[in-house]
Design goal:
Helix content is 66%, strand content 0%. Helix 3 packs across helix 8. It is mainly alpha-helical. The chain starts with a helix and ends with a helix. It has two domains: 30 residues, no CATH class; 94 residues, no CATH class.
């Protein structure tokens, strides 16, 4: 198990919380060891692959190709301020002068989380599901 530094106090900050955290870890290990797993069928895997491909395409079209996206992202999120916060173990960007593509995954997601939009988690799902439904029509 790997814990991020900022989570250690939250998960192990008192004996009671540490015991609860270790109970959760132990239960997860035991479940993984003793519960029989059902392998998904190849048909299901293929269907998920098609949905994933269409979802990813819709997401990338917005993030990489829509010219108004970067200005919107900069206005709608605290992306520019993230670098000055004293959180995380790495800089928010790989290249301080770079654009969105230089943002690390955690600051990218954190910026969207601050808006409660969660774009990085959900955008493209509709494209994937719509594409799959249309393939059956």
């Amino acid at each position: 198990v790997t814990e991020q530094g900022e989570m250690i106090t939250q998960n192990f900050g008192s004996p009671a919380i540490a015991e609860r955290t270790l109970d959760i870890y132990t239960a997860a290990v035991l479940r993984e060891a003793f519960v029989k797993h059902v392998e998904p069928s190849n048909g299901w895997r293929n269907q998920m692959q098609r949905i994933s491909k269409a979802s990813c395409s819709g997401y990338r079209e917005l993030v990489r190709e829509e010219p108004k996206f970067v200005p919107y992202f900069r206005q709608a999120t605290p992306e520019l301020e993230l670098g000055s916060l004293n959180i995380g173990s790495r800089p928010a960007k790989r290249n301080p002068k770079g654009g969105i593509e230089s943002l690390r995954a955690i600051p990218w997601t954190f910026a969207w989380t601050q808006t409660r939009l969660h774009l990085s988690a959900w955008f493209g799902v509709g494209d994937g599901l719509t594409s799959e439904v249309r393939s059956y029509m």
